[in-house]
Request: fold
Amino acid sequence: MTDRTPVLSVRGLSVRFLMPGGRRIAAVTDAQFDVAAGECLALIGESGCGKSVLASALLGLLPANAQAAGEARLGDLNVIAAGERTLARTVRGRLIGLVPQSPAAHLTPVRTVRSQLEETLGALTDARGRTALRSAAEAAAERAAFPTGHLDRHPHELSGGLAQRAATALALVGDAPLLLADEPTTGLDRDLVDHTVDELRRHVDSGHRALLVITHDLVAAERIADRVAVMYAGRIVELTDAETFFGSPGPRHPYSRGLLRALPDRAFTPIPGMPPELGDLPEGCAFASRCERATHACTALPSMTGGVACHHPHMTEDFRA
Reply:
């Protein structure tokens, strides 16, 4: 049973990029959400909406021209305000385990999987000595369903699925309470996508980990998520449970419904127009220029009410009808 105490609690998280000439780009604005142990939250939206910037902020990996404000708490620690020493020694690996977008690129190409696991174990656990590290590496591989017979292989000798399992094994080494998977299905065929999300889900269903999946793949999100947060132009515009979002009556924000209509097994109807530039956002609803429901009221920024930030949300209509 899910413990509703948040593992991660995000409040008012904003990220701005300072560009040449003093121009500022609002990549993330006032993000607020929680993720509990035993739960998966999928943060979805089109490419460029700010999802991966938010992930980088949680890990303290923003570029030098970025300014982050607000809170992202893991227990008593606000990682947004933490210094590099704390981020390196306490957050990365120990509090947040990262499952990267491109596992093969994330792994060191000239070293075996075993040596990378042993190095990570030496940094994040009490395992010491050749025998102890070897045994711990094999146990870590088994937890991620990585065959121990392949531990002495280099990343280029692994299939896409095995590279994904190796990256997952590294993410699990520190027994972090939060797993952060940033676009974990990008570039994978559908069978491997299903396998990847099922493996990630397995590590959450134990009940003591939370999972934040950042993805534009709605098929994968439907398979893995308990709740869904929809991001558009740097803002979370809808936050609801996955059963409601993907089922009946469906999401309430017009953008969320547009995303689902664009899926091949639905109406396959693309959303008209293009998202606004993050450096030139309107004062009101950023989706208004693409929305069939927009009125003059949408020139004012909508607040998040009842899990949706929209002046004219869908209420009771069955989205499947």
